[in-house]
Specification:
By secondary structure, this protein is an alpha/beta fold. The protein has one domain: Phosphopantoate/pantothenate synthetase (Rossmann fold). Helices cover about 50% and strands about 10% of the residues. The two termini are about 30 Å apart. Bound molecules: ligand PTJ. Ligand PTJ binds near residues 9, 10, 13, 56 and 82.
């Protein structure tokens, strides 16, 4: 935050995420791997996939974002809730240092606005989110996910809270910590690229977003009940 990368509100968002990660046991459950698989299928199938980057995401996993961007052929676009020139440049530097070839979202000549959102959050890159049919928006706020869905775009998100408005709005929601999920998505993308179209079609038929979100809730309930019944659960 002191380097202008993360917004003040980003610290609160981070704490919220950490609380939910305790409920998951701070590791990736099986249902999350299936959510990640569905998300990667959607992103690989998209004509113009884009990865939207905010301050939190840039700080947590810049190298992984760059690697996923290359694996999916999806450009990185800086898209900020609390947009300032200083933050745009600080985040661009983080991504450049992590090896990004191109970073969209901060060239004033390439900016256009999307409807339904308040002033600064409307700004998107005309080469990126504006044209995209599938936007990956991790750690996002509900309004923007809803606005992008209303424009007919598919939305993929990573959000540790399975009940957040973003999780409930997205086409595919991944209930996992971004620090784990991006690395897993890179591996899944590599595997899927070696699979035949028929194999991917069959796999896709077994994956359904709402069902998987329900599994996330069931997993949390099951885990907490199990912990509550164990004598040792409250020992350090
Ligand atoms: O950098 P900016 O200006 O674009 O601002 C970004 C923030 C994060 C401030 C903004 O998008 C925001 O306020 O987001 P929310 O509405 O707090 O949503 C963030 C969601 O991400 C919450 O539901 C958190 O539970 C979740 N979250 C936080 N940390 C993680 C996470 N999900 C996955 N992995 C995490 N590490």
């Amino acid at each position: 935050m002191h380097k202008n990368i993360v917004a003040e509100a980003g610290l609160i968002a981070h704490g919220r995420g950490e609380a939910f990660d305790y409920l998951l046991g701070e590791r990736t459950p099986n249902f999350a791997i299936r959510q990640e698989t569905l998300a990667v299928i959607l992103l690989l199938e998209a004509k113009k996939p884009v990865i939207s980057v905010n301050g939190n995401v840039a700080v947590l996993c810049p190298k992984e974002l760059v690697a996923l961007s290359k694996e999916l052929g999806a450009p990185l676009e800086i898209n900020l809730f609390y947009r300032t020139k200083e933050r745009e440049l600080a985040i661009k530097k983080v991504l450049d240092d992590a090896g990004a070839d191109q970073v969209l979202g901060i060239d004033p000549d390439m900016q256009e606005t999307i409807p339904e959102l308040s002033h600064l959050r409307r700004i998107v890159d005309s080469r990126g989110i504006a044209q995209s049919d599938c936007v990956f928006v991790p750690l996002e706020d509900g309004d923007r996910s809803m606005a992008l869905r209303n424009l007919g775009k598919n939305i993929v998100t990573v959000d540790l809270n399975p009940l957040s408005r973003t999780s409930l709005t997205a086409t595919v929601s991944i209930t996992n910590n971004i620090t784990r999920s991006i690395t897993e998505m890179i591996e899944i993308a590599k595997e899927l690229k070696n699979s035949s179209p028929d194999q991917i079609k069959m796999l896709r038929g077994t994956l359904e977003n709402k069902k998987l979100l329900r599994e996330a809730l069931e997993f949390i309930v099951f885990r907490l009940k199990k912990l509550a019944s164990e004598e040792s659960a409250l020992e350090i």
